[in-house]
Amino acid sequence: MSLDTVKIETKDKFIELYQENKELIQNDSPDYINEIRNNAFEQFKNLGFPDKKSEKYKYTDLDKEFNNGYRTYLSPKNIKFQINDIFRCDVPELNTKVILLLNGWYYDRENLINELPNGAIVGSLQAAAKLYPEIFRKHFASYADVENEGMVALNTAFAQDGVFVFVPKGVIIEKPIQIINILMDEEEGLTQHRNLFVLEENSQASIVVCDHTLSTPNFLTNSVSEFYIGQNAHFDFSRMQNEHNGSKQVSHLYFQQERNSYVNANTISLHGGLIRNNVNVLLNGEGCENNTYGLYLTDKGQHIDNYVHMDHAFPNCTSNQLFKGVLDDFATGVFNGKVLVRKDAQKTQAFQANNNILLTDDNDMNTKPQLEIYADDVKCSHGATVGQLDEDALFYLRARGINKKESKLLLMYAFANDVIKTIQVPALKERIQDLVDKRLRGELSRCNSCQMHCC
Fold it and tell me: 191, 162 in Cβ contact below 8 A?
């Protein structure tokens, strides 16, 4: 059977699934959402799944991952449990408002919307779409690229629930909001949740997202998150990916920043069989600053693929990208980063770097940092390194009485700390430092946060 035939069959499976379950998928959505959903479905029919002919997906075969018969969660499954009995947060000291998603559905079905005293709203995406149509009509599916990205079109067609966060003008949310995505079932499952975060002008918020699997079956996730950061707004986003090796995750983050806004975004990938992170940023006004960082620690055949597109559309904006990886034990990695500076985006400052350490000869890292510049008054740089631990630094430490194993660990931790130190929530930074140290020592189990201790 040819690869092209497999691709067509995979796409057709999801077309048939949507057509057979259209009434169920659309049942709890307003008409305007279903209109967006139907348009996205038509786009998916045209686009299908990306294959290796696409430069963006040259080293990651998603078609193969979606052609596997996973059960799709078209309604919330009735799984009842006491979260404290089987799960401990990897950041227990973090003083946050906690939101739980179970297999892509808002878990607290009796309390779907929380309206805070300051006017902020936190809750279920499905419920919020019906209660706050003015916000949704303005922002939902306005930033994600449904027209050109088949995976985003697929999510837009199927997604029914997720997280909605709205911070009104001038409001500052003091405590971080923690979103815990849990995958848990007795059978293999596919989840496609959708998140929408809206920060109006002069507002401020911090979001912490933790991804975990709490049972042994394989899982596949195709998620989309849209972020609107209004004028002079300040947003901090941290994500920790810590799923077992049977999990596959494809995530799409779309940030739109308005004039003088600030975003700091961190992704720490500790575990996962396959991870594809897509980050798209539009600097849509003068004076924007965006800092996008990533750290990935992979081994045992794991595959991590980070794609970043930074679009400087206006003058006097600054962006920083720093992605670092440590690969061991036949793991593979990809970094594909692009900085676009448009013609009128003078006085742009854009910096991009990807650095990797390969601990064994059977690792494979493909990196492609790119600059596409159409303005002439800019300050931009990009670069990438792939190598082993510095032998001179290793000799220096060993000459001072530190054994070889500890010397290697110290060098790897110092390498990773360039990303960790950019985390802006102190309790989260401290916990991530501990988790990374354990991960590098091989002490962090594949599902560290779960009390079930499944393999």
Answer: no
Q: What is the mean pLDDT of residues 12-28?
A: 95
Task: State the pLDDT at residue 82.
Answer: 58
CA distance 262 to 142: 20
- Residue whose entry in the numeric block shows the structure tokens 């996730």: 221
Cα four-point dihedral sign 189, 254, 375, 381:
negative
Q: How many residues does the chain have?
A: 455
176-226 per-position pLDDT tens digit: 999 999 999 989 999 999 999 999 999 999 999 999 998 899 999 999 999
Q: Give phi and psi for 346, each to the nearest 5.
A: -70, 160
How many CA atoms lie less than 13 Å away from 207 in the CB half-sphere? Answer: 27
CA dihedral 399, 404, 407, 411 (to 10 degrees): 120
Give the C-alpha separation, 15 to 46, whole Å. Answer: 11
pLDDT band at 353 (very low <50, low <70, confident <90, very high): very high
| Average pLDDT of the chain, as a whole number | 90
Secondary structure class of 226 (helix, strand, coil)? strand
Residue showing tokens 């600059």 = 371
Q: Residue 384: how many CA atoms within 13 Å on its side-chain side?
A: 17
CA gap 152, 144 in Å, rounded: 7
Whether pTM > 0.90 for this model: the answer is: yes
CB 157 within 8 A of CB 202: no
CB atoms within 10 A of CB 61: 17
Angstrom distance (rounded) from CA 454 to CA 445: 10
Sign of the torsion angle spanned by Cα atoms 29, 35, 36, 40: positive
Closest CA to 325 of 349, 347, 306: 306
Look at residue 397 and tell me whether its pLDDT is greater than 70.
yes
Helix (H, G, I), strand (E, B) or coil at 234: strand
Structure tokens, 128: 């919020």
Token pair recorded at residue 55 = 């430069």
**Distances from the Cα of 10 to the Cαs of 6, 45, 91, 441, in angstroms?**
6, 11, 39, 40
